[in-house]
Amino acid sequence: MLFYTVMKPLVRVGLRVFFRRLEVRHRNRLRLPGPLMLCSNHPNTLMDPLVTAVQRHEPIAFLAKSTFFKNPLLGAIMRSGNCIPIYRRQDAEGADAPTPTQLAASNEASFGRCYDYLERGGTVMIFPEGTSVSERRLRPLKTGAARIALGAEARHDFKLGLQVVCVGTNYFDPSHFRSDVLLNVAPPIRVADYAVRYHQDPEAAADELTEEIRQRLARRLVISRDAEDDQLAQQVERTFGDHLNPDDDPATLFDNFQLSRTLLDAVAWFEQHDPNWLAALRQALTAYLDALQAHNLDEDALDQSRRAGSRLADYLNLVLGLPVWLYGLITNYIPYKIPAQVASRATKETEFIAAIMLGVGMVTFPLAYALEATAVQHWLTHDWRLTSLFVLSLPLAGFYALGYWQTLSARLRRLRARRLPPAALATLRKQRATVLSLLDEARAAYLSKQG
Length: 451
Known about the structure:
Layout: H1 2-18, E1 19-25, E2 36-40, H2 47-53, E3 60-65, H3 72-80, E4 83-86, H4 100-119, E5 123-126, H5 144-154, E6 163-171, E7 179-185, E8 189-190, H6 195-200, H7 202-218, H8 227-244, H9 254-273, H10 275-294, H11 299-304, H12 312-320, H13 322-346, H14 350-381, H15 384-418, H16 422-450
Parallel strand pairs: 1-7, 2-5, 2-6, 3-4, 3-5
Antiparallel strand pairs: 6-7, 6-8
Helix pairs in contact: 4-5, 5-7, 8-9, 9-10, 10-16, 13-14, 13-15, 14-15
C-alpha cells in the first residue's frame, strides 16, 4: 500500500508527460463514494489501470492475471500496487499446473479479497474482457465482474450500496509518445437493482448484469468490426479529419471520438449498400497516400503548400529558437530515446509498448537529470541555486525541443511540396481532389439515408 501511495503522484506526472492530452468525460462519476467497482475495456495492458487510477483520490484494488505475479520482483511490485491475482485456465500450463479445482479455489480466495475491500467502502477495478489486445474492439465479457458485484451485495442482503461504473478507454494512437486518450465514463449501475433476479437465479442475474456492462461500454467506445475497416477509417480520419469535421472543437477529444464512430458506421453501411463505392475509395486513398509517402510529404504539407509566402514571425521563431532546441536536444535526447529502444526490443506486441515506454521513461529522465545536475554542480556552477535553475530548465527545454522539431519538420515538408515539379504537384492535387470528391459524395449519401 505504501508503494501505491508513493508511486501514484509519480505516475500522474509520468502520464501528463507521456500523453499530449488525457481527457475524462464525466470525471465526477469516477469520484463517487465507495463501495465502487470500475469496469473497463483493456486495449493497452498496464496503461489502462493507470490512466483511470490517477483520476480517483482513494486507492483502487486491481484484478490482474496471475502470470504477472510469477516473477518474484514483478509480483512484489504488483502486490505493493494493490493488485489481486485472478487465475485463468489458459495461463495454467506445464506439469505443475494447478487443477481446475485448485484454480477455482484460488479465484474464490481472490473474490473474497474483493468482497472484503468492497465491504470496507473501497474501489475495485476489473477488466471483464479478461485479456488485453490493442484493437478498437470490445471482446466478449467474462461474468467475473458481475459475480463479484452480486456476491458482495448478497453478503449484505443487497444493502451494501455497491455501484458499477463502466469506463470506455479510447486511445487515439496507443503506442506513441504524446498521443491522446479519452476516458468516456458511463452512469453508475446500482447492483441492488438486480436483487430480485439474483434470488430467482444467480447465474441469470450475473449474465444480465454482464450484458448491461457490455452495452454501457460499447456505447462509449470506438469499435471496429475488423482490421481492414478500422485501417480505412483511421486513414480517412487522420488524413481528412479536418475536412470532414470542420467544426471540431479543439478543446475536447469527444468530437474526434464521435467522428471515429461515425466513420466506422459509415464504412459498415457502404460495405452493405454500395461496396463499389467503398472499393473506389480504398483504391483512390491508397494511391494518394502512397504518392505522398513517395515524396516524403503528408496531407497538411500539400494543403498548406498553396499558401503564399510565410510569416516573418515563423522564421524568426525558427531562427531564434534554434539555440534552445539544441540545448533541449542535448540534455534530453538520451533519456528520450532509451524508452522507445527498450520497448521495441522487449516486445512486438503493441499493447505492451506504451506501458514499457512509460515505465522506462520514469527511470531514464530522473536519472539523466540527476547525473547532469551533478556534473553541472561539480564542474560549472558550484552553487545549488543555479543548479536548481538548470534542473528546472531541463523538462521545459525538452518539451520546447520536441515542439520545435515538429514545427521545423512540417515546414520542411511544405517546402518540399512547393519545390515539386509542376507535373508531380498537379498529379498529387488531382488525386487529393478525387478522394475528397468521393468523401463528399459519401457523406451526403450517408447522411440522407440516416436522416
